[in-house]
Design a protein that fits this description.
16 strands, globular, two-stranded antiparallel sheet, ten-stranded antiparallel β-sheet
């Protein structure tokens, strides 16, 4: 087990301080954004069962976040950006691996919950456009391995819970606005295979095999359609 604390910053508003463009006008007094992070981590290993589990419980406190003031949009002399945002959240990250001879299984699951926010895009206990729960599982099995030849098959499943976000966009030529626009969750399945002959290796992967139509949140006031079913073939030679 281990515990750690970190205090960090990012000078995100350097552009706003120097910009003379009206759309990005910010006060010359804009300060960096700060984050204090607390983490408690644990690792459990059971070699006899080929299992290893990692857990990270965290708490993040963010202050001085850049806030865009819509009310200032009509006044060119008033700075549109200020360090008025804050966000406190907690979460849990889990990962589990199972790796006996000829089989590899990896699973991770994350959960996040907003505790408090001010002047930040939050709906209930969720950050806008960010799923509260995500999960991924990747499983591979060796079909054969003769030393000169080997073949592995694999599958992966990726899941995300529903989200919501503020949307302001044009739909059918008309302005559409919704402060709690829903974005449905998704479950995407992929399959693939990897063949190796001596130093030559080739793999074929199909992602989103059911051609699921889904979107993801963005920072542009709209949700963005994502890629449907797609194939990728790679060839690699190891020198």
């Amino acid at each position: 087990m281990k515990a750690c604390y970190a205090h960090s910053f990012v000078d995100a508003p350097y552009f706003n301080r120097a910009s003379t463009v009206a759309s990005y006008r910010g006060s010359e007094n804009l300060a960096p954004e700060y984050m204090d992070a607390l983490q408690l981590c644990a690792t459990l290993s059971i070699p006899s069962l080929h299992l290893e589990y990692d857990c990270n419980l965290y708490y993040n406190s963010l202050d001085g976040l850049i806030y865009y003031d819509r009310a200032a949009s009509g006044n060119g002399d008033v700075p549109k950006y200020s360090n008025a945002g804050s966000l406190n959240l907690t979460g849990l990250e889990n990962s589990l691996s199972y790796t006996p001879e000829g089989i590899h299984v990896y699973l991770n699951l994350t959960w996040q919950r907003v505790l408090h926010s001010q002047n930040y895009l939050v709906t209930g206990h969720r950050v806008d456009g960010i799923p509260a729960v995500t999960a991924h599982i990747v499983a591979s099995r060796r079909v054969f391995d003769t030393g000169r030849h080997s073949l592995w098959v694999n599958a992966d499943l990726s899941c995300q819970t529903r989200q919501s976000m503020q949307v302001s966009a044009y739909r059918d030529g008309k302005l559409f606005e919704d402060d709690e626009y829903p974005i449905k969750g998704s479950a995407l399945l992929g399959i693939g295979m990897r063949y190796r002959f001596m130093k030559l290796e080739s793999s074929l992967t199909c992602k989103n095999i059911f051609d699921t139509r889904y979107t993801r949140g963005s920072s542009y006031g709209i949700d963005v359609p994502q890629q449907g079913r797609h194939l990728m073939w790679t060839v690699k030679y190891i020198f």
